[in-house]
Please model this.
Amino acid sequence: MRAPRVLILTHADAGDAVREAIHDGLDMAGAEAVRIDDLQATGAVLATQITDAIQGADVVVADVTQESPNLFYELGYAHALRKPTVLLLDTENARDLPSNLAGYQMVFYDRGDPGSLSKRIYRHVRSQTERIKTAF
Model:
């Protein structure tokens, strides 16, 4: 059985500590991490690679701390495909949550405590992948 494929969507200013914490949590969960940033194409080819990556993901982890049109488009596509999502939000920006995301479960994190974020990522991704396994 293959490892669950988890697509990571973050904004440019997420910071290395946050990205590393996400990767650590995914490693603990035994998941394969895929990042949009790692795709090498440009233009229409990149757009196809992004939609293919979303379609191929078992779970999508998205940091919605900062508003990013690209990230919200990608997240919206994942939601349209009914992909399980884990949405992250920095506690300092919790008041700025876009209203159309207010109904979704959020994983709040403190940038100063990346270890806590890793553990939360682990728990949520494991929960989502267990649901996927039992659905088949």
Q: What stands out?
A: The mean pLDDT is 86. The chain has four helices and five strands. Helices lie at 16-28, 43-56, 69-80, 114-135.
